[in-house]
Design brief:
Largest sheet: 2 strands, antiparallel
Helix content: over 70%
Number of helices: 18
Order of helices and strands: HHEEHHHHHHHHHHHHHHHH
Number of domains: 2
Shape: globular
Distance between the termini: 38 Å
Length: 492
């Protein structure tokens, strides 16, 4: 059975999606999604354990040996991402039943779980595949199901947000597949390892640089790198709360991973990246995201939209590690990929609980709600402190590694900007804390009460994780460090 785990990681959610569509009953569909989601971290955890003990796993689909057949490949970086996606799905799904029932029409609930499982399969597929074209296929599976989930939001603006995301996502996918086509024309292969080997022989040429540019732009659209982030705020603000929490924690992280895989493991073999201004471009765009998106977040009246702009800023921290491109900096970017997922999922799950109780996440509607929902809003405070980067939380660990990486390159000014940008998050997180705890109770807040346990416990698990991984970093920073070493080893 262990030898079939890579295939099961994808096949189970695909079968679950078909079953949800056939059942057409909300509670039955939720049960299928729950069982499937709980199985995923078991599978990914076993594979990551094997990778750390014995090295990368290579699985040939249908018995066709790579590079001629499709290969699923799990190493430290992909195994780390598989575990992250699986854990987020497993924690969110128990939370989802009440939230989805409250926000989505009854006849659409089975279709939501169908789309969720398709999205889960697509995201896991991107992380595990060792084939460039299959990465595109899984990217489209996850994207198409994401558009459907966003469109199910009860606000009519969800349809516009979904359409806007569809247009931007299609443009990004077109750039990506065009770049993959150029790689294929130069190497005659689509297998990641084989393409890297052949590029080492081909060397740098105009088609290779064009492929690098196309894939970078395409993935930048998918991961919402500033200024290609315009689709993200509306998508997060108007999607159902469960979809927002899941996508904020996973979708952009998978796009970052794919960017890392191409940048370091494939193009880094043939292209002397140090001779190109890639690092400077990423650092500049990351700083623009960290400051620009944080400033915009301060003035938002919708708290989901505020956290959406916060996500754009946090993506800036992740891509900053790519720009620094040394061991500590890249470790910081990869570990922030994990840490941001758990703390942002926790924050959006808190807001989902608020929507469940009072039906609004407008900043004025949240006035005084902390006194009616003390545990829920206490969870917001802790996860918010992690977003700020307070010592003792997971967010601090990420920023510490980024600062160390900047110091190692002699970029002391970057450390100053890193700290300054974190202070902006104090303003928008502090604004919500001040409104919810220290203002008189709003009219909407009068009907508030503590979150049901089925929603509260998953939220508290993620909040506890932000504290735990701020103290014990052996899993997160330890694996991220190994992944960074493996990626940097691919550079020419």
């Amino acid at each position: 059975m262990n030898s079939q785990l890579p295939a099961l990681q994808i096949v189970l959610p695909l079968l679950g999606a078909v079953l949800c569509a056939v059942l057409r009953k909300g509670n039955l569909a939720w049960g299928v999604a729950l069982v499937t989601s709980l199985a995923m971290p078991v599978i990914s955890g076993l594979m990551l354990q094997d990778v750390l003990a014995s090295g990368p796993i290579s699985y040939a689909m249908g018995g066709w040996a790579p590079p001629f057949g499709i290969e699923y490949r799990v190493d430290a970086a992909s195994g780390f991402l598989l575990l992250l996606i699986s854990l987020i799905g497993a924690v969110i799904m128990p939370y989802a039943r009440l939230s989805i029932a409250a926000e989505i029409a009854e006849q659409d609930v089975p279709w939501f779980y169908t789309m969720y499982l398709l999205c889960l399969a697509g995201l896991l597929g991107i992380a595990i595949t060792g084939d460039a074209f299959n990465a595109f296929v899984f990217l489209e599976i996850s994207s198409l199901s994401t558009y459907a989930m966003i469109a199910m939001g009860k606000d009519r603006r969800a349809l516009l947000a979904s359409y806007q995301y569809l247009i931007m996502g299609t443009i990004g996918a077109t750039f990506f597949v065009a770049g993959v086509g150029l790689l294929y024309s130069m190497t005659g292969s689509l297998n990641f390892v084989d393409v890297a080997d052949r590029l080492a022989e081909v060397g740098t040429s105009r088609p290779i640089l064009a492929a690098l540019g196309l894939i970078t732009v395409g993935m930048s659209l998918k991961l919402a790198l500033f200024p290609l982030h315009v689709w993200l705020p509306n998508a997060y603000a108007f999607a159902p709360s469960v979809a927002t929490a899941f996508l904020a924690a996973t979708a952009t992280k998978v796009a970052v991973y794919l960017m890392l895989r191409f940048m370091f493991s494939i193009f880094g073999v043939s292209t002397t990246l140090a001779n190109l201004p890639i690092g400077e471009i990423f650092v500049t765009l990351a700083l623009a995201a960290m400051f620009g998106a944080s400033i915009v977040a301060i003035f938002q009246e919708n708290v989901k939209r505020m956290l959406a702009y916060s996500s754009v800023a946090q993506i800036g921290y992740i891509t900053l590690g790519i720009g620094i491109a040394n061991q500590a900096g890249l470790t910081g970017g990869i570990v922030h990929l994990f840490n941001h997922a758990i703390m942002k999922a926790a924050l959006f799950m808190v807001l989902g609980a608020v929507v469940y109780r009072i039906g609004s996440v407008k900043i004025d509607a949240l006035a005084g709600i902390g006194r009616r929902m003390p545990i829920t809003m206490g969870a917001f405070v802790i996860a918010g402190l992690s977003i700020i980067g307070t010592p003792g939380t997971a967010g601090f660990i990420s920023k510490w590694y980024l600062a160390v990486g900047a110091f190692e390159k002699g970029w002391w000014w970057l450390v100053f900007l890193l700290v300054t940008s974190s202070l902006l998050s104090v303003i928008y997180i502090g604004r919500v804390i001040e409104v919810t705890w220290f203002r008189p109770l709003s009219k909407e807040g009068e009907k508030a009460s503590e979150t049901p346990l089925s929603m509260l416990i998953p939220t508290l698990i993620l909040v506890a994780a932000t504290i735990y991984f701020g103290i014990d970093t052996s899993l997160t920073a330890g694996i991220a460090s190994k992944a960074a070493d493996a990626l940097l080893a691919g550079l020419r």
